[in-house]
Design a protein that fits this description.
Blueprint (H helix, E strand, L loop, with lengths): L5 H22 L29 E6 L11 E9 L5 E9 L10 E4 L5 E4 L2 E4 L3 E2 L4 E9 L6 E11 L10 E11 L1
Antiparallel strand pairs: 1-2, 2-8, 3-6, 3-7, 3-9, 4-8, 5-6, 9-10
Length: about 180
């Protein structure tokens, strides 16, 4: 009669139980991330290159005057980012009550069929989005709140090498806070 090696059985059971959690940790941010817009945080640097890169060039355009927004007005934003040889991109954008604030203000909405979604009140990617000629363009909307005041659109954009790994070949940068005056 063969003797059962209890140590091997225990190791096998531990691996079997932990395997789903390892998969979750490895792939969780590929489906979007929120809470990374605060410039005092590590943002994308939690998993990718540790510091923002000035090589990731970000521009933002709006279809309205951002210094005089009537309450409950919907504004379209177009965010463009580029990085030489980038294959995929990810994003996290929020509108906060103050620079690096924690309270979301107004309502963000992704453009239909853009690959973007809302997560915890912020705009993020549903999965890594393919770049075209090392560039990505994101379109989204913000509906101003009823309450007048100054609010701040801020975020981070990741430009990835497309190798499927979270590594230093993925560069990111901050979307500098943009004041929205309602």
């Amino acid at each position: 009669m063969k003797r059962i090696n209890h140590k091997l059985v225990a190791i096998f059971l531990i691996i079997l139980i932990c395997l789903p959690f390892w998969g979750y940790l490895a792939f969780s941010k590929k489906k979007g991330v929120s809470g990374m817009t605060n410039m005092n945080s590590k943002s994308c640097g939690e998993c990718h290159s540790s510091n923002p890169s000035p090589n990731v060039i970000i521009s933002l355009q709006a279809d309205s005057d951002l210094n005089n927004i009537p309450p409950q007005t919907r504004i379209k934003f177009t965010l463009t980012a580029n990085l030489a040889n980038a294959k995929v991109s990810g994003i996290d954008v929020a509108v906060k009550n103050q620079v690096n604030g924690t309270q979301n203000v107004g309502t963000l909405t992704p453009e239909t069929n853009s690959g973007l979604k809302i997560l915890n009140g912020e705009i993020t990617h549903g999965s890594p989005i393919n770049c075209s000629n090392s560039q990505i363009t994101y379109n989204f909307y913000w509906t101003a709140p009823q309450t007048e005041g100054s609010y701040f659109l801020q975020g981070a954009v990741l430009m990835g090498n497309g190798n499927g790994k979270e590594d230093s070949g993925d560069l990111w940068n901050w979307l500098q806070p943009v004041e929205l005056k309602v």
